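User: Earlier you gave me the apo prediction for this protein. Now I'd like the version with NAP bound, so I can compare the two side by side. Same sequence as before, with the ligand SMILES added.
Assistant: Got it. Here's the input I'm using:
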Amino acid sequence: MRTTTLGTHGPQVGVIGLGAMGMSFMYDMATPRDDATSVSVIHQALDLGVTLIDTADVYGPHTNEELVGRALAGRRDRAVLATKVGRVVVDPTGGQDNLPVIASDGRPEHVRASIDASLRRLGTDYVDLYQLHRVDPAVPIEESWGAMAEAVAAGKARHLGLSEVTVEEIRRAQAVHPVTTVQSEFSLWTRDVQAEVLPYCERHGIGFLPFSPLGRGFLAGRFASFGELPHNDHRRRLPRFQQDNLRANLDIATGVRVVADRIGATPAQVALAWLLAQGPHVVPIPGTKTPRYLADNAAAADVRLSPSDLAELDAIPAPVGARY
Ligand SMILES: NC(=O)c1ccc[n+]([C@@H]2O[C@H](COP(=O)([O-])OP(=O)(O)OC[C@H]3O[C@@H](n4cnc5c(N)ncnc54)[C@H](OP(=O)(O)O)[C@@H]3O)[C@@H](O)[C@H]2O)c1
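And here is the structure of the complex with NAP:
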């Protein structure tokens, strides 16, 4: 796998990473988890050079970090391990479709207590990347970020990252401690970051980690109707996945498939290759718990899109429905 560096001073990673969330959380919650397969997917990832493994303490909650920790036992030094702090489950089943209700908690005392708990679950004494999952509107970013910088000073985290932030928030954080990465939703159907955040990151030597790079599976051609979504699944409450919107958005998935068929790639690979073409600082973190999808996604690192392929993908229209 080709590699790149996260930020100016960050670690080297394969240009495609792995998001572990869906192995434990948010998607298809009614189906029993197959942790053994998920662990083997993480092992497969490391073998293929997919070294950046992304989790968060809120995923599960907690069980996703435990799963990643089990998978990395004896392999810790082969992974670039990223976790997050700042989101908490306030009601495990009280949301729509019996899904968890989640809130932000960026208080310094919460951050200080959380890093040790994450390290225990992950079975390691440091994480490579510690990310603020969301800026807590009730806490100045300098306070949350300052507490995270204490984790770096204590050797518990090597680098710090932000998630879903504005340029102004990045600037405020940088004044306290270097920002190594920004993780935000970015894909062929969520391109807001192209206006300001993505170019800012490139100019300032900050790595950019697109989350939900496959449009939560939609761009890979997984869902053609609302009824195909599993029960107890986060996508069931997102506006773009509601039946009428989903139907209107099928042209987007078709546009990706047309390019994929022409160049002999899969739609998922085209969606990821389009992201890689947005700059050397972009490292998508597609989520999967399925061995053949992992192999598919890893091979996207070698898919080259021509200028006319890129122009055709750039011309895909914006989706119907908000992302949240
Ligand atoms: N910072 C944040 O606030 C935030 C928010 C959301 C996500 N994230 C991170 O981003 C990661 C990825 O995002 P995501 O999981 O929401 O969305 P995603 O990567 O866009 O899509 C995941 C979905 O696509 C399917 N899939 C994956 N590869 C495929 C392939 N090659 N062909 C067909 N289907 C494929 C997966 O199926 P299976 O699971 O069935 O294999 C899953 O249903 C998460 O794991 C998490 O680490 C961060």
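For your comparison, keep in mind: The first strand starts at residue 3 and ends at 5.
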